[in-house]
Amino acid sequence: MLNVNSVHADIVFAKKKKNSILKSLTQAMAKKTGEERWKDLDITKDEVDRIGKALKNEEFRKMFLDYAQEISDPKNREIYEQEIAQMEAERGMDVQFIHPKPGK
Q: What is the largest distance, in Å, between two alpha-carbon atoms of the chain?
């Protein structure tokens, strides 16, 4: 005779095991991908700490989100690039902006 409680317990155990394995794989893949992304970044521990502290500040996060949305507008981005190029030219620097295309 089939014991429904036993089958249910086996299913619950299998789901937990599957979730545990998926979680471990996801974490391992994220870690590797994160290491690859950070590999060439030249940043000090102090800078990482300061960025982390700033991201915990609600006002900073709001301002950062506003900035990100603002420069997502192509018209604003063009204005920013012109202003930055002008300021850098005043310092004797030549600026070239890179605009990568997704998937290339």
A: 87
The pTM of the whole model exceeds 0.70: no
Give the long-range contacts of residues 27-30, CB within 8 A, separation 24 or more: none
Tens digit of each residue's pLDDT (9 = 90 or more) over 82-100: 999 999 999 999 988 888 8
Q: How many helices (H) and strands (E) in the chain?
A: 4, 0
**Alpha-carbon gap, residue 69 to 80, rounded angstroms:** 13
The H or E element containing residue 43 is none
- Which residue type sits at 59? E
Query: Residue 96, CB half-sphere, CA atoms under 13 Å: how many?
Result: 2
- Domain boundary assignment for the chain: 1-38, 43-92
